[in-house]
Every structure is written in C-alpha cells, then in structure tokens.
Amino acid sequence: TAQVAGLTTAQVAGLASTQIRAMETADLSALSTAQIGALTSAQLAALTSTQAAGLTTASLGALATAQIGGLGTGVLASLSTSQLTALTSAAVTALTTAQMAAFGTAQIAAFTTGQVAAMETADLAALSSTQAAAFTTAQLGAMSSSQINALFA
C-alpha cells in the first residue's frame, strides 16, 4: 500500500490494466486524487466491483468526465451511496445509458438534486419502472419537464 502511494502520477498512468486489476482495495484507497486523476479510462475499466470499495469519495469526486466512461457497470453498481454522491454533476452527465441502468434503487434514491438535474433525458428514459419509482420527491422536483417526460414515458 505504501509502495503504491509512493508512485508518481506518471508511473500510475503507465500501469498496465493487469497491474491495476492486481491492486487490493487498500492500494486504491492509498492513491491520491492526483494519482486517480492520472488513470486512463482503460485502466479504470480494469477495476473490479470488489476493488470499487477502495475508491475514496475524494478520488471519485476528482474523476474527470473523460474518465467516467471507463467505469464498468459492475463497479458502478457496487458503489456505496456515499461514494455515489461524491460524483460531480458533470460526471453524472457523462454517464452512459448502460452505466445509469446499472444503479440500484437505493443508489438512485441517494443521488443529490444537483446530480439528478444533470442527468440526460436519454439515460432517464432507459431506466426501468422500478428504478424510476426510486426517485424521491425532492429529486423529482429538481428535474426539468423534459427529464420528467423521459423518465415516465
């Protein structure tokens, strides 16, 4: 863990996907936000759902929108609600339809109103009726009319 934390951002960026996959959750927790920011979307795609527990809220909040596409649906589905709410509104906008569909009802209910307001209509339209029912009154109040129409179309 201390060794991983000692890597430079350039060294982290140079790790192979197999090396990323070999990291333990404690190793990921030890990475700084700068080190996490150096990961490519391909490296992030190598993460497993078990490893997702090692992503700190600070590191998730620091992810660039270009990195978001690399997060697998299994990783996203395994995020805790506190991890999920650490994503920026821009990161939520960058989520794909498949990524949005991976979230469980508890995760959907945990999104902040700012995150909900940033959701794309196509992503909302692709959610199941069970997922749509998980939105809270406050979250629905944060949606535009086009978002509401997409969600309940």
UniProtKB/TrEMBL annotation:
Superkingdom field: Bacteria
One of the Pfam families matching this protein, by short name: ALTTAQ_rpt
Name assigned to this protein: Heme utilization protein
Organism: Dendronalium phyllosphericum CENA369
